[in-house]
Write a structure and sequence with these properties.
It is built from 2 helices and no strands.
Length: about 70
Protein backbone atom coordinates (compact mmCIF):
# COMPACT_ATOMS: atom_id res chain seq x y z
CA UNK A 1 0.00 0.00 0.00
CA UNK A 2 1.41 3.35 -0.94
CA UNK A 3 1.84 6.10 1.61
CA UNK A 4 -0.82 8.27 -0.07
CA UNK A 5 -3.34 5.40 -0.03
CA UNK A 6 -2.63 4.78 3.64
CA UNK A 7 -3.02 8.48 4.46
CA UNK A 8 -6.33 8.66 2.56
CA UNK A 9 -7.60 5.59 4.40
CA UNK A 10 -6.50 7.06 7.72
CA UNK A 11 -8.30 10.33 6.97
CA UNK A 12 -11.49 8.42 6.19
CA UNK A 13 -11.17 6.47 9.43
CA UNK A 14 -10.75 9.73 11.37
CA UNK A 15 -14.14 10.89 10.07
CA UNK A 16 -15.87 7.95 11.75
CA UNK A 17 -17.47 8.26 15.15
CA UNK A 18 -15.37 7.02 18.10
CA UNK A 19 -17.56 3.92 18.37
CA UNK A 20 -17.15 3.10 14.67
CA UNK A 21 -13.38 3.66 14.89
CA UNK A 22 -13.28 1.27 17.83
CA UNK A 23 -15.25 -1.33 15.84
CA UNK A 24 -12.85 -0.85 12.91
CA UNK A 25 -9.86 -1.31 15.20
CA UNK A 26 -11.36 -4.48 16.70
CA UNK A 27 -11.99 -5.99 13.27
CA UNK A 28 -8.47 -5.13 12.08
CA UNK A 29 -7.08 -6.60 15.27
CA UNK A 30 -8.98 -9.87 14.74
CA UNK A 31 -7.66 -10.26 11.21
CA UNK A 32 -4.11 -9.56 12.35
CA UNK A 33 -4.42 -12.12 15.14
CA UNK A 34 -5.62 -14.73 12.66
CA UNK A 35 -2.68 -13.96 10.36
CA UNK A 36 -0.15 -14.26 13.18
CA UNK A 37 -1.72 -17.47 14.50
CA UNK A 38 -1.52 -19.06 11.05
CA UNK A 39 2.12 -18.03 10.74
CA UNK A 40 2.95 -19.26 14.23
CA UNK A 41 1.21 -22.61 13.61
CA UNK A 42 3.15 -23.04 10.37
CA UNK A 43 6.44 -22.37 12.11
CA UNK A 44 5.58 -24.69 15.00
CA UNK A 45 4.61 -27.47 12.62
CA UNK A 46 7.85 -27.08 10.70
CA UNK A 47 9.90 -27.14 13.89
CA UNK A 48 8.13 -30.22 15.22
CA UNK A 49 8.60 -32.23 12.03
CA UNK A 50 12.03 -31.00 10.95
CA UNK A 51 14.43 -33.94 10.80
CA UNK A 52 11.79 -36.44 11.83
CA UNK A 53 13.12 -39.03 9.35
CA UNK A 54 16.80 -38.32 9.94
CA UNK A 55 17.36 -41.67 11.69
CA UNK A 56 15.01 -43.60 9.40
CA UNK A 57 16.18 -43.03 5.81
CA UNK A 58 13.79 -43.75 2.99
CA UNK A 59 15.05 -46.62 0.85
CA UNK A 60 13.75 -47.86 -2.47
CA UNK A 61 13.53 -51.66 -2.67
CA UNK A 62 14.98 -53.48 -5.70
CA UNK A 63 12.72 -53.20 -8.74
CA UNK A 64 11.69 -56.19 -10.87
CA UNK A 65 12.91 -56.19 -14.46
CA UNK A 66 10.77 -54.32 -17.00
CA UNK A 67 8.61 -56.44 -19.25
CA UNK A 68 9.04 -56.29 -23.02
CA UNK A 69 6.24 -54.45 -24.84
CA UNK A 70 5.40 -53.80 -28.44
CA UNK A 71 7.04 -50.78 -30.03
CA UNK A 72 4.68 -47.87 -30.71
CA UNK A 73 5.14 -46.61 -34.27
Amino acid sequence: MSESTFEALFEQAQKLSPVDRLRLMERLSMTLQADFIKQADWHAALRSTYGILANDPIERPPQPPLEEREIIA
